[in-house]
Amino acid sequence: MASDSTIDTPDADRVYLFDTTLRDGQQTRGVDFTVADKAAIARALDQLGIDYIEGGWPGANPTDDRFFAEPPKMENARIVAFGMTRRPGRSAENDPGLAGILDARVPAVCLVGKTWDFHVDVALEIERDENVAMVRDSIARAVTVGREAMFDCEHFFDGFKANPDYALECAEAAYKSGARWVVLCDTNGGTLPHEIEAIVATVAARVPGTHLGIHCHNDTGNAVANSLAAIRAGARQVQGTINGLGERCGNADMMAIIPNLVVKMGMTTNVGADKLTQLTSVSRMLDERLNRSSDPHRAYVGAAAFAHKGGLHVSAVQKDPKTYEHVEPGIVGNQRHILVSDQAGRSNILARFAEIGVEIDPKHPKIQRLVDEVKEKEFLGYSYDSAEASFELLARRLIQGVPEFFTIERWRVMDERRFNARGDLVIESEATATLTVGGTAHHEVAVGNGPVNALDTAIRKALTPKFPAIQTMRLIDYKVRILPPARDGDGTDATTRVMIESEDETGTTWRTVGVSPNIIDASIAALSDAITWKLLRAGAAVPKTDA
Amino acid sequence: MASDSTIDTPDADRVYLFDTTLRDGQQTRGVDFTVADKAAIARALDQLGIDYIEGGWPGANPTDDRFFAEPPKMENARIVAFGMTRRPGRSAENDPGLAGILDARVPAVCLVGKTWDFHVDVALEIERDENVAMVRDSIARAVTVGREAMFDCEHFFDGFKANPDYALECAEAAYKSGARWVVLCDTNGGTLPHEIEAIVATVAARVPGTHLGIHCHNDTGNAVANSLAAIRAGARQVQGTINGLGERCGNADMMAIIPNLVVKMGMTTNVGADKLTQLTSVSRMLDERLNRSSDPHRAYVGAAAFAHKGGLHVSAVQKDPKTYEHVEPGIVGNQRHILVSDQAGRSNILARFAEIGVEIDPKHPKIQRLVDEVKEKEFLGYSYDSAEASFELLARRLIQGVPEFFTIERWRVMDERRFNARGDLVIESEATATLTVGGTAHHEVAVGNGPVNALDTAIRKALTPKFPAIQTMRLIDYKVRILPPARDGDGTDATTRVMIESEDETGTTWRTVGVSPNIIDASIAALSDAITWKLLRAGAAVPKTDA
C-alpha cells in the first residue's frame, strides 16, 4: 500500500510536519504571495525541518502555475501539489484539473474530497457512491504516475458525527487505493479536543495511525489543542501554517505545535534542537513578507512571549527564570524582555539597563527620576516598550548625558496638488530645514513623496557631510496612532504618536517614538531620535565648532 | 465551610464565570485602565452575565484604590478584590496589605499564594509550613469579616508535578478554612490539556469540583483547551479575560470559553442565549477602550470569523451556511461577511452587492469589469476588504453612476515649525483648497493640528454650506501603511495606503481607502470617498449650477 518504506519499521513517536502556509494560508484576507515569496518561504521551512510543504494549487492561479513549473530545490522537504479529486462523470485519466496537479514537477500530491454526506448531497449534488469512486480513482491515478499520494478528508469530523460509516468509507477508500496519508480535516473548525481524540482513535482502528494526518482550524480557539489531541490518539502527520495564517480564525499554528510536540510531548520530528532555534525568525520572516505587524503575544515566538512587566515578576525572574518561564526562550530563538512602563519599579529599569549594556549603580540617585520621567511621558502618550532606542536615549541623557550631535532649529514643508503649465496633475512635497551642526547653521531644501520623506531628505542633506554614518540608515516602518485626549482630562485635543523603525547596512533595526499634536512634528521627533541613536552607536564625534 | 448556600443542591452543570480583565489583564504591555474604563467594563461584563468580576488590587496603585472606594453598582455580578495572603511573620489581623484588601467595599476577595515548593524556597525564602499557615490564616480572616473568599493557587500545576503532596496541602488548607473557591492557576502557562485534565481530576478527590476554579495562560497556545479540560474534569469556575487580554501570551479568552461551554458543551452559566448575542460587542468595546485594533481572526467574535473569501466556499455558503460555518454567527452577535478581493469571482461580488443592498442582475455585463477593476486596484495597493464604503462607491460608479457632488481641483498645505516674534516655538499647519461645487469654485483656507486635519477643515468649509449633512461627520480612525514597491516590479517607489474610519451622529461608521505615493494625497482620496459616501447615504442632491 504505502510507497514510503520507512513505515515498515515505524518509529512510533515520529511525527511528520506538513505546512500549508502557501496553500491554505493564502486564503486569508489581505494575503497574496508572489512566486518569489513562495520560494523564499519554502526554503525557510525546508531549513527549519518541515517534512512536507504544500506549495499551492496548480491551475488555480498564475502564481501557483509558475511556482510548480519550476519549484525551488529542497534539501529535505517534499513539496506537495494540492487539488481536488476528479470531477464527477469524468475518469481520473481524463480530468484536466487532476492532470494539471499530477503534471506538477514535485514528489507529492494532496487531493481533497468530500467525506460528509451532507456536502455530497447539497454542495456537489451527486450520488454518494460516485463520490467514493472519485476518491478511489484519483488516489489510484496519483500512485500510478509515481506521486506520494495524500487524501484530505474535507469536513471529516462533522461527517463522522453525521454519518460515521460513510465518512470511514471515504477515508478507507483512499487508504486502500495507496494513499501514504489520509488527512482528517476539521474544515469548519467547530470540533472540540476531546471529540477529536475520540474520533481519531476510532478511525485508527481502520486506517493505521502511521497513515493518519490531522488538519485543524481555530474557529473555537482550539486548533493547537485539537492537533495535539489527534497525535495523542495515534495520528502521525500534523498540518498547520506559520503563525496560524489562514482564513476566518486561522489554521493551526505551527509555531506552537512544533515546540509542544518536541519539547513538551517528547515526539520525534525533523526539527531537532538546533533547528528549533530558527522558529522565531521563521515567524518574523512571514510577517515581514506580508508586511503585517507581528502579534507580540504569539505563543513561543511573540516579542512579548517572555516579556515581564510587573515588579514582583521581574524580581523573581532575575533570581531564577524558571519561576515565571515555562521554557527557556533561547530554545525557540526568542528572548527574555523586561518591559519599561509606568508600572515599572526600580527593578524593571535596572534590568532594562542591563539589557542595553548600560552599567549603572543600583543606588544611583537618578534612577527614581527616570522612573518618574517614564511614567510622565507615558501619560502624555509615549510608549517605551515598543521604542527601545528612544528609551535608551532618555535613560542615557538622564544618567550620563548624550552628545548634542545636531539641533533641528526650524523646518517648513509644503505639499501641493496642482496642474502644471502643461496641464498635467502633479503632487509635490518640498521641505526646508535649518539645522545647527558644530556651531554652524545649515539650511537645506529637498523634495520627497510626502512631507516626512521630504523633511528626512533635507535633514540628511544637512547632516551627511559631517556624519557619513547615517548614509546607510533607512526608514523601514512608520506607524501612526491617534491617541484620545488625555484620560481624565478636560477635553484637550487628541495627540499623535509616531513610531518609526530604522535599519542600517548591518541589518540592525531600532525603533523610536515621537509624540505631538502635529503629525509632522511627531514624525520629526521620532526621526531625530533615530538619527541620534545611530550616531551614538557609530561612535560619531560631535563636530568641533567651525572657527 | 462554604458560605454560598446554592451549593447545597448544586446544579452539576452550572459553571461560574470569573473575569479578570481588570486585574490580570491590566498586566499587559500598553494597558492602563482609568477608573472610568474599569467601571464601564465592569458594567458590560455584568450585563453579559459574568458571575465574578475581579476589579483590581486595592493598595497596588491609585486607580485601583479609587475603584474600590466607590465600586460600580452591579445587577448580578459580584466584584472581587484581589491581593496576596498575609506576609510571613505577621498575623492576618495585623497585615496592612491584607487589611487594605478586606476593607474594599465588595462582597468577594481572591487571595493569591504559593503552592509550588520551589517558589516558597527560592522566591519567598520562607519555611514551607509558614506558607501553609499564611494561606490558612488569610482565608479564615476573609471569611471572618464576611467576604466570599477565594484562593488562587499560584503555579499549581508546576507545583503539583514537582511535589503533589505539598501543592494539595496548600489547596486543601484554603478549602478547609472556608474558601468558597480554590482556583488552580497555570501561572507559567506551560501545562498541556491532557495534563490539566488528569491533575484536576486528582485534586477533585480532595477539594470537590463544585469548589474548584481554573485559571490558564496561553503560553503554549492551549489556554482555552486547558480551561475546558478542567471543566471536563469537574472544576466549576473558569477564569479568563475579554479577548484573552494578558501579559506574555495572554490569559484564557472568555470570548471563546463562553460559547464553547454554553453552545458546544451544554453547560449552564448566567450567559443565556439572549445575553450571548452581546459577546461580539463586548469584545469590540474593550479594544475601543484600549484604542487598539481588534484581531479580525479572533474565534467567534473576530470580524473575519465568518468571512468567506474563496469562490468555492462562497457558493456553498450561499446554498447553506452550515456547509462552512460551525455555528450561526448571530448567536454571538457576529455577522457573515463575503470578502471582495482579487481572488473574488463573480459570486463574491454578487454576494457583496446583496450585503450592501444594491440590486443587480447576476448577468449584468459590467460585473466582470468590476471583478477586473478590483483585481487591478488591489495590485496597486488598494484593499477593499477593510474599506467597504470605498468598494461600494467603486461598484456604484461602474454599475449605475454616482452623482458628482464636488470636485477637489487643487490643494496646498504648509506645515511649519518656527519661533514666532515673541520667541515662542509654534507648529502650524495651514491648508488651502479649491473645490468645484455645482459649477462654482470655492477657495478656502484653514489651520489644523496637522496637514490632513487642516485640509479636511478647509474642504468642509467649502462643502458645508451646500451640504449640511457632513457637519456631523467626523474622522475617528486613521491608519497608514507603507507598501513595498509593486511586487515583481522594477523597483518603483513605495506607495502609501491610508484607511480612514468616519462616524456620524447616528453612530454609523464607515471605512474608506486612498492610495498614492504621497501620504497627503492618499489621505485626501480616502477623505473624499468618505464624504461622498455620506452624501450618497444622506440622499444629498447635486447642487444646481449657480447661474
TrEMBL record, chains A, B:
<dbReference type="GO" id="GO:0009098">
    <property type="term" value="P:L-leucine biosynthetic process"/>
</dbReference>
<protein>
    <recommendedName>
        <fullName>Citramalate synthase</fullName>
        <ecNumber>2.3.3.21</ecNumber>
    </recommendedName>
</protein>
<keyword id="KW-0100">Branched-chain amino acid biosynthesis</keyword>
<keyword id="KW-0808">Transferase</keyword>
<dbReference type="Pfam" id="PF08502">
    <property type="entry name" value="LeuA_dimer"/>
</dbReference>
<dbReference type="InterPro" id="IPR013709">
    <property type="entry name" value="2-isopropylmalate_synth_dimer"/>
</dbReference>
<dbReference type="GO" id="GO:0043714">
    <property type="term" value="F:(R)-citramalate synthase activity"/>
</dbReference>
<dbReference type="Pfam" id="PF22617">
    <property type="entry name" value="HCS_D2"/>
</dbReference>
<dbReference type="InterPro" id="IPR000891">
    <property type="entry name" value="PYR_CT"/>
</dbReference>
<dbReference type="InterPro" id="IPR054691">
    <property type="entry name" value="LeuA/HCS_post-cat"/>
</dbReference>
<dbReference type="Pfam" id="PF00682">
    <property type="entry name" value="HMGL-like"/>
</dbReference>
<dbReference type="InterPro" id="IPR005675">
    <property type="entry name" value="Citramal_synthase"/>
</dbReference>
<comment type="pathway">
    <text>Amino-acid biosynthesis; L-isoleucine biosynthesis; 2-oxobutanoate from pyruvate: step 1/3.</text>
</comment>
<comment type="similarity">
    <text>Belongs to the alpha-IPM synthase/homocitrate synthase family.</text>
</comment>
<keyword id="KW-0028">Amino-acid biosynthesis</keyword>
<dbReference type="InterPro" id="IPR002034">
    <property type="entry name" value="AIPM/Hcit_synth_CS"/>
</dbReference>
<feature type="domain" description="Pyruvate carboxyltransferase">
    <location>
        <begin position="15"/>
        <end position="277"/>
    </location>
</feature>
<dbReference type="GO" id="GO:0003852">
    <property type="term" value="F:2-isopropylmalate synthase activity"/>
</dbReference>
<dbReference type="InterPro" id="IPR013785">
    <property type="entry name" value="Aldolase_TIM"/>
</dbReference>
<dbReference type="InterPro" id="IPR036230">
    <property type="entry name" value="LeuA_allosteric_dom_sf"/>
</dbReference>
<dbReference type="GO" id="GO:0009097">
    <property type="term" value="P:isoleucine biosynthetic process"/>
</dbReference>
<keyword id="KW-0412">Isoleucine biosynthesis</keyword>
